[in-house]
Amino acid sequence: MMGTSKLFMGAKVQGERDKVQETRNKEQGTRNKVLNQRLLIIFPKTNRMRYFAIVISFFLFAGCKLIKKKEKETAMLNRYKPVEWSHTTNVYEVNVRQYTPEGTFNAFAKELPRLKEMGVKTLWFMPVTPIAQKNKKGSLGSYYACSDYTSINPEFGTLDDYKSLVKQAHEMGFKIIIDWVANHTGWDHVWTKKHPEYYLKDSTTNDFKIASGMDDIIELDFTNPDLRKSMINAMKFWVEECDIDGFRCDLAFWVELDFWKEARKELDAIKPLFWLGEFDELEKPEYSEAFDASYTWTWMHRTEDFYKKQLPLDSLITVLKKYDDLGDSSMRIWFTTNHDENSWNGTEYEKYGDMAKALAVFSATWNGIPLLYSGQELPNKKRIRFFDKDTIHWTGNNELHGFHKTLLHLKNSNPALRSGDPAVQTFRIKTSDSKNVFAYLRKHGTAEVLVVLNLSAQKDLHFDIIDKNVTGIYKNVFSGAANDFTSEKSFEMQPWEFLLYEK
What we know:
Strand order of the largest sheet: 3-4-5-9-10-11-12-13
Helix content: 25-40%
């Protein structure tokens, strides 16, 4: 995300912040080891991410202006250059099993025109590989318990069906990334018979090692060079056979960083790819060396706490600042829900209530890449079962289609919303109510996007914009009305309301 944007400037010089960050990283590493020992055995994969995303402390900041910092040379030395289209993309996560009653690639293909019209640019398919049957969860098993890295889940169709879907999507302008689960496989993966040496062993049972207490998956051994070669060859299969455009790498930080660097070097030689890693830079900043984009688990969970516990607005600002303290590293994914959160921790409306739409506006306009999950355009207000068939209840009236269309098309078209672009500047805008209003301006040359969020339950909230960076005529993105900020700087907003302008 914040690849080269202008962000929060703290009071300390860069060298001081580096020392502080080094100390905090060491402290966090110790805490993570303790959490792994005490918690991973009893919590499922999806819930444990909540614990990995916890941030122990934050700096308060006094300034209001978001200004560009110097790049941290050490963090950027080994960075790969992202593919150009990633700077303007968005990501839509596809749950094939639950998307249609059929739960197939061919059935999903019929939705492509609607998603194209909504402004979706990148389709992320949850794992399309076959699911292991031994020790499987529920009636259908977990997508993330693979039985063969180079085959298609017959539940979804055939390999030719998927190739056809990718070809059709490409012709319509979509990019395609697939979920890649490198850390573990299911118990009856083909490698368990052909290459048992690829797996870690449990010293007490002399059997395969269960992956962090989840009894449907077993852990691979990345100290084995042959395993690495086989894994990379499996990844090459999807690039060469299906012409995919990138990978979303599941639990990326559970796999050695040097493997991802090795994999990327070989795979990018086939075609330049987009690499999204499931890790939070606040936990594993070094992984940004291998990935173009990362997750913002900390932000997502802090916003939930903000809403439910009525925390002060500064509690959110400090999270954004802490990402900034890491320096310019990767583009970041902003989201309110995904397959894990929806199934295990609740829908976005369970977590954020009336704030959900304001957070969607933030996700689409802050420096980074917005992520949507299947059904958010409904809106989807049910938890989708993970291991069984549980079709999304499409009503034929996608109430939020137009809402997301407006946001995604703005992201796609206005250069001020480019992510990871050094030409883009981001400023926090001063208002007369800094306790309830979060406002920011993004600029690229003469192009600007102004966002004003009432992040409170206060009715009839009156405030003024008192920032010299906001001047001239802006167009309200949703209503089309013009507003002259040279003279019109007083506002009244309702609880959790948002205003979005461009020029």
